[in-house]
Automatic annotation (TrEMBL):
<dbReference type="InterPro" id="IPR011009">
    <property type="entry name" value="Kinase-like_dom_sf"/>
</dbReference>
<feature type="region of interest" description="Disordered">
    <location>
        <begin position="427"/>
        <end position="448"/>
    </location>
</feature>
<dbReference type="InterPro" id="IPR029244">
    <property type="entry name" value="FAM69_N"/>
</dbReference>
<feature type="compositionally biased region" description="Basic residues">
    <location>
        <begin position="438"/>
        <end position="448"/>
    </location>
</feature>
<dbReference type="InterPro" id="IPR022049">
    <property type="entry name" value="FAM69_kinase_dom"/>
</dbReference>
<keyword id="KW-0812">Transmembrane</keyword>
<keyword id="KW-1015">Disulfide bond</keyword>
<comment type="similarity">
    <text>Belongs to the DIPK family.</text>
</comment>
<keyword id="KW-0735">Signal-anchor</keyword>
<feature type="domain" description="FAM69 N-terminal">
    <location>
        <begin position="17"/>
        <end position="175"/>
    </location>
</feature>
<keyword id="KW-0256">Endoplasmic reticulum</keyword>
<feature type="compositionally biased region" description="Basic and acidic residues">
    <location>
        <begin position="427"/>
        <end position="437"/>
    </location>
</feature>
<dbReference type="Pfam" id="PF12260">
    <property type="entry name" value="PIP49_C"/>
</dbReference>
<keyword id="KW-1133">Transmembrane helix</keyword>
<dbReference type="Pfam" id="PF14875">
    <property type="entry name" value="PIP49_N"/>
</dbReference>
<keyword id="KW-0472">Membrane</keyword>
<protein>
    <submittedName>
        <fullName>Protein FAM69C-like</fullName>
    </submittedName>
</protein>
Amino acid sequence: MWRSLRGALRCLGVKVCRRSALLVILLWLASWLFLNGLVFVHRNMFSDFCTDHKSKEILQRVCAEYQQGVLTGDLCEDLCVAGRVEYKRCLYYENGKKVMAASWRGVPIVLKSKLENFSSYEALTLLEYQDAAGGAGGEEELSPLDVVFYATLEIKNSLGLETGANLTLPRLWGQKLKENERTYSRAELASLWALLQQEEYTFLRVLQDLTHHVAKILGSCGHFYAVEYLAAGHAWDQYIFSLDELMLSSSPNPWSGQEKIINARDMVPRVALSFLEMVEHFENDFSHSLHLCDIKPENFAIRKDLTVVAIDVDMAFFEPKMRDILEQNCTSDNDCNFFDCISKCDKAKNRCGPKRKNSNLQVICEKIFRPWFSPTLLGAKAGLPLQVALQRAVQECAEIDGGEDAQRTRAVREQLKDLLVELSQEDTGHQGEGQEHKMRRVHTALHF
């Protein structure tokens, strides 16, 4: 009997041990998964957490690579040696993009890069070929024509455009190169190539000489480029743009001490006129229409002369690339919405149409103008005949399909323009001021 009892206890002990071992293994596995999950969440949630400490570390690495001869640019000497670039604060990190505020020789600027590290950008194939040739006992020099050829391919890939014969390296890159220099250093080529892989840099660099409605690039160091600091819009501000921030921007002040300083309410019709000018310019003055697919206050800014400027153009596309983006598989019209750019679903083919259904003007009327000229914001003036006519015009503008009736769209735009000019005259009390607010067309074309 005792033997049977000992056997039973031994069997029970084995079962308990096995269960305990299994529980320990399961507990260890659950702990491992939990800890790895925490690490994953931490990396994803806090890798884009904007801090001054991390921003300064990033710039220190840029300067270290500049000292090593890995990268260069017309901003590097002042940033890394002379101390003429003063870091101010971190603005935001988003999906790897780093954006910081600084001042360059006393002028406010914004430093940007799509990726944090210079090494994260794809290396220029020409440099790898040059290394192979050098290793084989030969030395291949790169002419500007070689670089322009590769730059042309990159621009075509990022913007969906062809480039013309007037494309030159200094135009793409702000580096002050000697006119008689026929070759470029490895650091110059690598830095240029890292910049060209950033769609926003390429977009701004190509367009800034052709329109005053995009932010100006002032310089670069490696993969970071500096743009002018402007008064950006805020969704929570009823007037979108702050006059206090406007005075801090780096753009020149067109008003002298003898002239009237405008208030926020006076500013609205003038800025609205500049929005209309920007829309007309983007639609008609380039070889392809430019589509803005993320229209919100934060993506625009104003200079001190109240010119509207597109400052975040990651979601701006010329017509050829816009068509490629829109033409996707679909089962309903909802599948054909690409942020603020939408098209229709052809249910017979289950494909979205390549032509955009709405327009830049329609979205701006809906998201910018309608809140501006609402009865809530206008207050006691909301019932005045001019204000009522303006509200109706804005409502019609927000509801029109830009791709269906071009003539009607032009008529609505002209009506808005006339009403805004009249409102601007009424608010300022200067009858002759309307001429100053007529649309300023820049008669240059972007022929790629």
